[in-house]
Amino acid sequence: MLPKMSIRRKLFISFSVIFAIFTVLVLLFQYQREKDFRTGELETTLDNITELTHQFIRENAISESGNFRMIDSLVKILPGPETRVTVISSTGLVLFDSEVSEVEQMENHLQRPEVKISVATGFGANIRESATTGRSYYYYAKYYTDYFVRTAALYDVKMKDFLHVERLFIFYLVLLFLIVSVILQFITRRFSDTITKLKDFAIRLSSGVEVKETIEFPNDELGTIGSQITSIYKDLNEAKENLDIEKNKLFSHLSALNEGIAFFSSQKQKVLSNNHFIQNLNLLYDKSTVSAEKIFEIKQLEPILQFIDQQLQRTEVIKSGELPMLDMDLQKSSRYFKVKCVFFQDKSFEIVISDTTKLEKRRMIKQQMTSNIAHELKTPVSSVMGYLETLQHNNLDPEKKKYFIHKAHAQARRLSDLIEDISTLNKIEEAGEHFGFKQQNIKGIVEEVEEHLKLRLDEKQIKVIVDLSGKKEIQGNESLLFSIFYNLFDNVIKYGGDHIEIKLSNYLEDKKYLYFSFANTGNEIDEKHLARIFERFYRIDDGRSRKNGGTGLGLAIVKNAIQLHHGEISARQYEGGGIEFLFSLAKK
Which of 2, 231, 538, 579 has the most crowded CB, counting CB atoms within 10 A? Predict the structure, then answer.
């Protein structure tokens, strides 16, 4: 690859090319002038010879005698050895030609250009190659009523002769070029210095190199322009840095927001939006999209869209302290959203979409839970109060007192279990991030649960088969992991029946998760209940559940504790009878 030429060299070459073209044009002009001058001289000479020939014919009465060969004597004394004389009759027959002896064999010359012109104007001239001799002539013809006299001279204006004559003029042009080149070198040195500095400055900028040093330019107009450009660059660079800082702050803020937010121009064109806005928009829009402008096509947002159109048509100026805004709530499928629109003084506006599904569901859950808690507490409290009133107001024998005290204690214990389960569930849902996580051995936790429930398992004659070979460790919370396995075992003990088997196994493991199967061969559950058994206070058989002391929160605790460990749980019918829980726990 050839190196790039400097601006000085480009200027010099450009000037040289222009000067060369100018020189050629001048030489061609001079050459044409020389040709025209010589042609004019030649035409004058030929006109004189033509007149001389005509006088010779008339004085010697050659036209009457027909002895045109007499003209040879005239031709011999004519100036110029290559002058050709031809006499042509008015009908075009050649009567005499100084270079052709047998003129009767020559073709009719009436259609020769110079002859035809002379008929109309009295004389005619033409430059062409002779059909007879094959040489180029300058033909000159005059019409004299009875005949034409045509003279011709060999046409040979040579370029080399012209150049020889104009040599001094060419030397003058070359000398002028050299003088101007020296002057141009001096002038372009300062010019190219500024251009070179600006070029280096531009190259460094395009390469991403920050220019901090001050560049010195010559003290002239170009230098002033260069100084102004670098000064403007520094101001723009400083403004850009400040703008980038503010932009990064804004992007960080938008990314950190849980709400979807987008800014639009007064032409409803998106200016800026965050990922949450597109995600929430796709939940509201019927089709998948990445275009924020699709929000204007959602019919459910009609109040917001009408508000936007009204504000864009508004003529009065918006005051800074009175920004128009409108918000609305809407539901799409099973999700809830809050949409808010705020207009600014330049008629641009922002739209905020907040997914309030969790808040709404939490509100509904709390409302339902409050109702369920009140219902669940009512029974044991009423029972305890009834047993205590019986003991207080009746004279009972020791056996009866012991029976009522035992019943009251059982209901109080059930009340205590219910309060403890509610507390655990609330902690998981509302303060899950406050649980401490560290390395835990799953096999050790399961063994601890078995030991804790051994008497109850033996009482129901339940056989436990645990297949947890190898090192099964995850990053988790010990008390929550204990609750997961404790509630699964406790659920089987309460509702599975007697003489059954519990099988716990780790059936799969990958880089991120441990996958478990917890199955029992006890009582089966109807398929319609399987999807709801993890709901709070959901009971398949309300009477049997209360009789067995269940709070209705055990499996809800299991599900929430597993989700807190980034896992999932599901239930299905077990092939050997009973049900099987399939769940996963993240290793980290």
Answer: 579
